[in-house]
Design a protein that fits this description.
- By secondary structure, the protein is α/β, with parallel strands linked by helices.
- It has two domains: 227 residues, Alpha/Beta hydrolase fold, catalytic domain (Rossmann fold), CATH 3.40.50.1820; 57 residues, no CATH class.
- It contains eleven helices and 15 strands.
- The strands form four sheets. It has a nine-stranded mixed beta sheet with strand order 1-2-3-5-4-6-7-12-14, sandwiched between helices. A two-stranded antiparallel sheet has the order 8-9.
- Strand 10 and strand 11 form a beta hairpin.
- Helix 3 packs across helix 4.
């Protein structure tokens, strides 16, 4: 059944539209932030990070979207299949479905009146989907990768290692190490001990199809079609050199004809993880450097 989008208008005239759009059999939830004042023609698709990180950064993306809309841009924030208010189950989602979700989001926004070019913005794993989709489209003029996960296999293995701590809570010991979890997942489609699922990240179950597809991704090889403007913005706690994989990604993009800029955003906390002492939904340097770069490339 088709649902009518709900539009909310704030006291200062901001218009935000809440809606569902289709990706195959699944309905994806979206929040569209209409441009305020003179529209620029730029449509911005925001790609949230993975699993639990999406929850901690929800308000941050909303604040960023509102600031973009205030500058005249049309913005879409959406939930991937199996997360937020979108249909489906998280464990059913794969790399392919997330790329398709992002494609559908870009298509929906590009279809809005007045939108003639796109900017994709992604955080961490969201930067992966943004980068892969940007490489497959010719209407993505700009791309912003916040703290991008360049090598997905390495990132997933690190997160699975950190997830072992829950075993000491449940069983008072490590009953299955990271490599055993991965081997069981790839062999049996799951990793269990005493009826408890172990192939998860903070409760978010990682399926065999997702893992098999994800470990093949390296952005240094997966963005060969992109030749637009790209801002690579790793997020660090103190001034230091960017990591080797991010530098290599910047160099690859330049070699293939893209205009790629690499900078650092120094933030006090890793705001995509839980922190009992401090919380931010407005990382100042991250936002400021992104807006400054966007103004420059939009001249």
């Amino acid at each position: 059944m088709k649902q009518t989008p709900k539009t909310i208008v704030s006291a200062r005239g901001d218009r935000e539209e809440f809606l569902f759009f289709q990706n195959g059999e699944h309905r994806l939830f979206g929040a569209h932030f209409e441009p305020r004042g003179t529209a620029t023609g730029l449509g911005v698709v925001l790609c949230a990070p993975f699993a639990e990180e999406k929850i901690y950064t929800h308000r941050l993306f909303t604040n960023f979207a509102r600031q973009l809309a205030a500058q005249g841009h049309s913005v879409l924030r959406f939930d991937f299949m199996g997360q937020g208010d979108s249909s489906g189950q998280f464990e059913e989602a794969t790399v392919e479905t997330r790329i398709a979700d992002t494609m559908c989001a870009a298509d929906w926004l590009k279809g809005r009146p007045g939108v003639n070019r796109l900017l994709l913005v992604g955080l961490r794993m969201g930067a992966v989907w943004a980068g892969l989709v940007a490489a497959q489209r010719d209407d993505v003029a700009h791309l912003v990768l916040w703290d991008p996960v360049v090598n997905v296999e390495r990132q997933l293995k690190e997160e699975l290692r950190l997830a072992l701590a829950i075993q000491t809570v449940l069983f008072r010991k490590i009953v299955m190490n990271r490599n055993q979890i991965i081997d069981s997942l790839l062999t049996n489609g799951k990793a269990e001990y005493d009826g408890v699922t172990l192939n998860h990240l903070q409760g978010w179950v990682i399926s065999k199809p997702f893992y098999e597809q994800a470990i093949q991704i390296d952005l240094r090889k997966g963005m060969s079609g992109f030749t637009g403007n790209c801002l690579l913005l790793p997020i660090v706690k103190k001034e230091k050199k960017p990591s080797k994989p991010v530098v290599e990604l910047r160099n690859v993009l330049k070699e293939q004809g893209a205009t790629a800029e690499l900078d650092l955003a120094i933030e006090e906390i890793t705001f995509w993880t839980i922190n009992p002492n401090i919380f931010t939904n407005h990382p100042a340097m991250l936002f400021d450097k992104t807006f400054a770069w966007l103004r420059e490339v939009e001249k």
